[in-house]
Amino acid sequence: MSTVTFPDPDRAVIARRNDIVKQLKRLVPEAVMIADEEGRRTFESDALTAYHCLPLAVVLPGTTEEVSAILRFCNENHIKVVPRGAGTSLCGGALPLEDALVVCLSRMRKVLAIDTANRVARVEAGVTNIAITEAASKDGFFYAPDPSSQIACTVGGNIATNSGGAHCLKYGVTVNNVLGLRMVMMDGEIVDLGGTYLDAPGYDFLPLITGSEGQLAIVTEATVRLLKAPEGSRPILLGFDSTEAAASCVAAIIAGGIIPVAIEFMDRPAIHVCEHFVSAGYPLDVEALLIVEVEGSQDEIEYLLEKIEDIARDFLPSYSRRSMSAEESALIWKGRKAAFGAIGQLSDYYCMDGVIPLSKLPKALDEIGWICRKYRFDVANIFHAGDGNLHPLILYNANDSVQLERVELCGEEILKLCIALGGCLTGEHGVGIEKRELMYEQYTDEDIDQQVRVKEALDPAWLLNPGKVFPIEGRDARKMRGLELHQLEELQEFEPQPELAEGHDVP
Amino acid sequence: MTGHMRLGFHAPETEEELAHLVAEAVDTRTPLEVMGRGTKREIGHPVGSGAVVSTEAMVGVPVYEPTELVMVAKTGTPLAQIEAQLAENDQELPFEPVDLGQLLGYAPGEATIGGVVATNISGSRRILKGAARDHVLGMRAVNGRGEVIKSGGRVMKNVTGYDLGRTLAGSWGTLAIMTEVALKVLPAHREVRTVICFGLTDQTAIEALCIAMGTPYEVSGGLHLHAAIAERFSNEDIAGAGAAVTAIRVENAPASARYRANSLKQALLAYGPALELDTERSRAFWGEVRSLKMFQSTPNPLWRVSTTPSAAAKLVGNLSRKMRVNAAYDWSGGMIWMETPALTDGGAVDIRRTLAEFGGHATLIRAENATRSGIDVFQPLDPPIASLTAKLKHAFDPLGILNPGRMYRDM
């Protein structure tokens, strides 16, 4: 563990581990319990592997009723709970706590219904993202959000972080594609939200729960929107001698009234690594490469690609190639989708997730380059350009604790830059433990207080996934020590307002 | 504590003034009726507070970046102004908000953008592009404590903290008073085509609509009108048919829209597609749908019902055995505008009883004051959701200052 700190664990709970496990086994005999150290070790990290912590115990329930019984027990016994799907969080959202029970939904992986007339699927939360599309594809339908980890990540996890993906420019993110949820509140109550219709009565709790990082309820089932697959889709590759030209081209395509299904951006280091890894046929002599994909019938695709080429011509692309076949398209996407893995073969990397207004793209890339040079790291940029969601991958050595500390500061400076440019900390990965201390960069005390009040309304004792999302220094830490909100409001001395974008000294 | 706050109409010009006003209401325990320009004031229970706060003096568009598909608007800005500015750049609000105000006697586009978001009112295109709330990227608001809060931002993707902006959409001013909303906007399509079938039964029509929605042609409107409703449209082919009308819309670049309309006609051959409207006539037709022109000429109660598309025809069928129902099914059958006879309860008991069997919910959109006061205008909530609702209300407005009783009597 490097610079991330946690509240002191509840030693009394840890001391009662054996007793707690025994009681849980009695309570939910069908659920899988993991209490031995070796078994718990499997769950000590999520995909933000720099951090790890052995949990109190792990339970894998098989039904909503079991989840309900487990949460009611934990609530009554004041035991913290960390929900987990496939553990692919990139922000430490599923990082265990020493005194917390991990409730892992990966056994709940039934596709309950595919209803093509109403264009919805009902699935258990442990179903993988790709499994929905697999189940619906025989009727020609698909589930739109497609995070890079889609073969592994679960729907429950997608809902917790409001996952996006390469195709969300056109189809929206998870929140735009979820119609109903079955969830369990910390006190064990089972609540059904929405259903197979397009809006909910009364307050809309779906967007509140979606993206709440497992802090308000544990989702056990979801009803999601299915879409008919397009007649066809095809990407075009556009290479440019400068990132500015590429960024301006993206803006011009959108201004031209075209919303491609995806616009992906890669800079020179990313292109080279991916090409070396996959031989996708990317040009190696360009500074920036766009993969622009459009959908429709053959004629529609030709029409759109022609229009995009026309628009791109103003920005003097040094490379332009339409995919001519399904195989070629698959190879182009294989390169992009392999990017994180390819870079991971070369080096450890720290993946950022800031978002900026599109018009600030050239400035942002320029500044990110400067920041990384200052911290003496190489960086590869690969991201969803259409929506301004940046993913700089900072290359470092995770086994070097000095580098780990330095890379965190470097990342922090990049995220502060995103906010200063009018953007936000995280577009699709979530806050987790990784970015919680930066929340005050984006939000005021009142903004955070309002979120905290919502948290407390649904989980008054802060037992569900605590220590995440909210700054630990400040309110959350005080809450951990048992201070009530009304007492908090009388305490005015803690005003952590770090000076914006000033930057750190490099250790 | 007793009130010293000045009663009557308040229209603060800035967020600070508004925050100050709400804080004063909190101090004096004065309930506030919250509105924009009041075009939807007759929906919901009458609030009956002596103090009204309006956002109508907070007008303007601080940010509009067409190439970023983003508009940030002050919530008092009239819809007409927002849409005119978007149209200058060939863009639009993708969710095509229903202009409820016209139903209640107000001018077109008089509603404020804040009111549109606060009521999450989405039109026919919702079925393709999502609801108003789906396009909320961020907001600024004053909560029931008189504090200025914000959530989200102005960028396309944002998962930084809880999504309070989208949560406020559809809360009818009962959680916080929004002062600014950041919305995702999209290019408007140049060509619109509408494929029309006549004389289908409700059940067959919904089946046809679901087939159309299950094609890859990106259908942006799936509507079925009872004959009694269809005859109120301006289009002579539609009004004069003397039959139920089923309408399916596609929007795209010209060649695409034409190709898709033709493909749809092939896919729906069994349902006898008999008419295709061109862009101009399509715009006129869907414009009337959007303003609910077909319900403007009668004073009868009007309900908005959400249900599962495949259950819709049966739901209306069962209800029709109890009362005369004139229905316009939108969203491929998933949302039904239902005109009911002028019963004392507007048909509430029978509608809600029937809904209990089929799933879904109903909101009374238009009725006499006496009717609205006497029944649940919004769908009564299941106990677990009612409990969450009360908790959320308390988290934003602990003293119940904002629009008390508007949605639910005890809240």
UniProtKB/TrEMBL annotation, chain B:
InterPro entries the record matches: FAD-bd_PCMH (IPR016166), FAD-bd_PCMH-like_sf (IPR036318), FAD-bd_PCMH_sub2 (IPR016169), FAD-linked_Oxase-like_C (IPR016164), Oxid_FAD_bind_N (IPR006094)
Tell me yes or no: is Acetylation among this UniProt entry's keywords. no
For this UniProt record, the keywords arranged alphabetically read as follows: FAD, Flavoprotein
Region forming the signal peptide? none
Alphabetized GO MF terms:
catalytic activity; FAD binding
- Residue ranges of the FAD-binding PCMH-type domain? 2-188
Sorted alphabetically, which Pfam families does this protein's record hold?
FAD_binding_4 (PF01565)
Q: Does the keyword ATP-binding apply?
A: no
PANTHER family documented for this protein: D-LACTATE DEHYDROGENASE, GLYCOLATE OXIDASE SUBUNIT GLCE
Q: What is this protein called?
A: FAD-linked oxidase
Q: Which organism is it from?
A: Methyloceanibacter superfactus
